[in-house]
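ping. complex inputs:
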Amino acid sequence: MTENKNNYCVIMAGGVGSRFWPYSRADKPKQFLDFFGTGRSLLQMTVDRFRPLVPIENVFIVTNVAYKELILEQVPDLVEGQILCEPARRNTAPCIAYATSHIRAICLRKAGLTAANQDWSRPEMQVNIVVAASDHLILEEDKFRDTIRKAFDFVSKHKAIATLGMTPTRPETGYGYIQFIRDESNEMEHLNPKDIYPVKTFTEKPNLEMAKVFLESGDFLWNSGIFIWNLQTISEAFRYLLPEVADRFREGELLMGTDEEEAFIEQIFPKCPNISIDYGIMEKADNVFVLPSSFGWSDLGTWGSLYELSEKDTSLNVSLHSNALFYDARGNVVTLEPGKLAVVQGVDDMIIAEQKGVLLVCKKAEEQRIKQFVADAQEKFKGKFN
Amino acid sequence: MTENKNNYCVIMAGGVGSRFWPYSRADKPKQFLDFFGTGRSLLQMTVDRFRPLVPIENVFIVTNVAYKELILEQVPDLVEGQILCEPARRNTAPCIAYATSHIRAICLRKAGLTAANQDWSRPEMQVNIVVAASDHLILEEDKFRDTIRKAFDFVSKHKAIATLGMTPTRPETGYGYIQFIRDESNEMEHLNPKDIYPVKTFTEKPNLEMAKVFLESGDFLWNSGIFIWNLQTISEAFRYLLPEVADRFREGELLMGTDEEEAFIEQIFPKCPNISIDYGIMEKADNVFVLPSSFGWSDLGTWGSLYELSEKDTSLNVSLHSNALFYDARGNVVTLEPGKLAVVQGVDDMIIAEQKGVLLVCKKAEEQRIKQFVADAQEKFKGKFN
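pong. complex structure:
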C-alpha cells in the first residue's frame, strides 16, 4: 500500500480550451478530451496517475461549475464535494488558495480544531499536497510517481515549497523556465536532498535566442506547474505572501465542507485578485526547491506540441482520430470527428481540425491567432460556434 | 401557350459526380444538389427551364436506376415511365439512342405505325427533340429558350442536327470547341438561317496556347452538349453513322413503353459500345449546324468553374452554403455542410469541401486529381466514403 491517507491531490481543471478550438470547445475543453485515442481523457489520465499516491477521497478538482457534471461522469468514484467550483476565473493563486482552505478545514475538523486554534503539530494536520494541471501529458508515469514520492518525503521534513522542473530537450519558447542553484555549498546543503535544488529565479517564456542560452547553460528547467508542499508551509506562504487572497478564505474557513461553502465562495472568490501562483508565491518565497525531472512531460499547450508528440507518417503528417490520405502534403496535423476521412493535397505545416460544426484550417506557425479567431467567430455568430 | 406537344426533351442525368467529391457523392451526384443555395437542384432547374418549351409529359430523363427515386422525388410531376434507366454507363451515344428509340416508339404508337412501317410524313412523327445535360448552369433562361425555339424551328424545316455553341469569354481549356463556317457563300446559304452556321469541326479540349488562338479567331465556340434535332433526322443519323448502336434498339423498338422495356434494355444496353454522341454522330455528320449563343452557360464541370461563377468576397474567397472567416487567405472556395463554420488562415487558391464525413483540402489547380483521390479512398476504405 503506497497510498498515504495524509497525501492530498489538487487538480486544476478550469481551462476553457480555446487554444485547441475547434477540437476543444467551451462545452468540452481539452482536459475532457481523449487526445490520443486511448479511451481516457486527459483528466481521467491525470486522476489515474495519482491513484497509487493519494486516496481517491483526498483528490479535489477545482473547476468551473459548468464542468461539474462532466467530471463526475468521467471520474465516477469522485463525490460532489470533491469538485470545488470557481464562480469566476481568477488564475491559479485563488484556485489553489481555495483548495488549500478546503483541505485545511477538513484537517482541522478531523483534529477537532478551529481556524483560530491551528495546531500544526497534530498528526491530522501533517498533510502533503500535490497540485497539478488536469490537461498535461506524462508518458513515464512510474518515474513521475517516484519523483512525487521523493518530493512528498522532502516537504514533509522541510518547510519547503517544491516544484518539478523538466530537463529541457529543446530551446522551447512556449514554456516558462526555472533557474536553479547547482552550487553544493549553498546554505540549504545541510538538507542534503539528493537531486533537489534551491530555485534561483522563475522566468517568463523566453525568445528563441534566450531559450537556446537556457538550454546550453544546463541551469534552467521547464516550469511544469506541478507543486508539492506541506499544508502548513503553503498555508503560511499564502498568509505572508498573498494575504489579500488568504484573508478572504480565512473569513469562512469552517464553512468549507458545509452547505454554506458554495454561497461563501460565490461571495469572496470574485473579489480575489487575478494572480498566478508563480507570480504570487513561487517568485517571492525564499524556500522554493526544484526537482529536475524527465518523465516525458508536455503541457499540450499548443497544436505544435501535440504534433511533436504524435506519431507521424513518412511525410511527417499527423492524423488524430481520423482517416486521412495525404498528397504532396508534409508536416500537417489533422483531426476530424471520429470516423471521418480527410483528403489533404498540396499544403504543408497546417492545422486542419473539424469538430461540432467548425472547421479550422490554419498554419501551425500561426496558431497563437486561434484565440482571436474564436473571439471573431463569437462576435460574428453570437456564440454559436464557441 | 408556347409549349408544343410535338416538342420533346431528353435530359441526361446519369453522372456519378466524382469531380465535386466530397461535395457531390455517388449517392447524390452533382445534378441533384442545390449548388447555389437557390432551393432548387441543378436537375430541377434544368427541368424548369424547359417547361415553357415542352409539355412535362414529353420530358424524359435518362439516368442510372439508383437515382430513379431521387428524380421522382425532386420532380414530382414526372411519372415513372419518364425515367429511362441505363443498366450500364455507356457514354452519351447509347444514352441518346435509347431516349430516341423510346420517343420514336411513342410516336409510332400514336400514328398507329410499326417500326417496320415508319412514315415520317405523318404529323405524329413530326417531332423535335432537345437533348441537354441535367447539371449545367444557365443564367439567362429567357435568352436560352429563345435560342431553343429558333433551333426547333430550324430543325423542323431542315434535315439538320443543331447544337448550341457558346461564344467564348476566356481561353478555357476545360471545354471542347466547335469551329464554324462564317462564309456567307457556303452551300447552306439558301437556308438563310440567321445566326445559324454550318459546323466545320469539333475539337477536343485545347491547351492554353491553342485556346487563346481559338478565342482570338472568333471562329470557335464552346461545345455546350445541347442538341436540337428532328426525330427523323437523328433516327437516320444513328442508322447510318452508328448502326452498331441503332440496330440494337431497333430490334425491340415496340417493346418501348411496355412492361418488357426494362428487360430488353438490360439485355441490349450493356452490349452497346461506349461512345459519345460527339464522336459517334456530330463529328461524322455533314448536316451539323451551330447556333452561337451567350446566355451565361457553364457545364459546372470543375471546382474552378464553380468558383468563377460564385460571388466572391474582397479577398476573392468563395463560401458556398457555409459561414466562413478568412485570414491571409485568397482565392479559396469553401463549402461545408449547411450551417457549419469554416475558419481559414494562410492558404490561397484551395478547394476546402466537407460533406458526409469527408473533408477535402486540395489546390484548385490540382482538382483533376480528385478522381484519383476518390479511387484511392474507395480502395483503402472499401467504398465507405464514395
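The longest strand of chain B covers residues 220-230.
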